[in-house]
Amino acid sequence: MLEPHSSFVDADNLRLHYLEWDPEYISQSLTADAAAPESDENMDNIPVVLLHGLAATADTWRLTAEALYPRHFALAFDLRGHGLSDQPASGYDPVTIAEDVISGMAKLGLGQVAVVGHGWGARVALVLAARHPALVSHLVLVDCPHVEPRHWPGMTRERFIREKISNDIYPSKQEYLQALRKELPFNWSPGVEEIVQTYVQELSDGTVQERLRPEQQCAIRESLWEDRALLYYSKLSCPVLLIPAADRPVPGEELPERLEHADEFAAAKGQMAAQVARAIQRCSVLWMPETSHDIQLQRPQVLADAIANFLQE
């Protein structure tokens, strides 16, 4: 993989870590016998800001950003509480985290950008684009949980906040990787293994735990329950691309009676995407059936091509 520039930026008293796929840095870091990328003369002038999902890190975009580069300059933040960024006690609602990104962009001298968000990061991207329309040229929502959890059939506030909180401690990094390989329903690769190791930290006794702590996970899920995401879609003025890990819904098909388990969500993703697409002024949908939630890991080239093509339209 191309090695991005890794650094930190102070965003209103919050230290954010970021990865930057910058042509000048990458060209300098390549070894003499490495294959050089295409000339940066072919690079489009729209920078791409990438926002990761819950409990992931900026590294989750490595494969996609490498495929996207050198057509677009790309930058991925570790969002508040994640990765190597600061972990304050509060501020885990989508609005505050979106403003973190805006502050980081300003400090780095970024003007108008295309924003790509995955999962929970797509919800943050949605808020960012609705609140700062002048700064977002295009918006890409990758497998976003569009419908508010309060509207999920069979879901209660307590269950949504508490049931999914992860506090797993693995005896070793190897056992963590073995457990994750069973969870991810696609072919494993050394690149994916390198990426998912950034989601956790090794403690002094050799055990491994997620970098995002349980109390922060709880704060994020509580804020998602309170968030009124559906109000943002009609406020979007830029072109929007939805990329659900789902097939196009069958007309007349109804949502499952409950939305609590993975198979129920898989069956409902298409209907959720179709529902919100109707509320967006300029929206297109790329249906990706037989794909897991982690599209950026499973099909990075397809995702990168879709983003690049969308930015050219």
From TrEMBL:
Gene3D superfamilies: alpha/beta hydrolase
Gene Ontology terms for molecular function: monoacylglycerol lipase activity
Pfam families: Abhydrolase_1 (PF00561)
Domain AB hydrolase-1: 47-159
A Gene Ontology term for the protein's cellular component: membrane
Biological process (GO), any one: acylglycerol catabolic process
Top-level taxon: Bacteria
PANTHER family documented for this protein: MONOACYLGLYCEROL LIPASE, MONOACYLGLYCEROL LIPASE ABHD6
The protein's name in its UniProt record: AB hydrolase-1 domain-containing protein
Organism: Dictyobacter vulcani
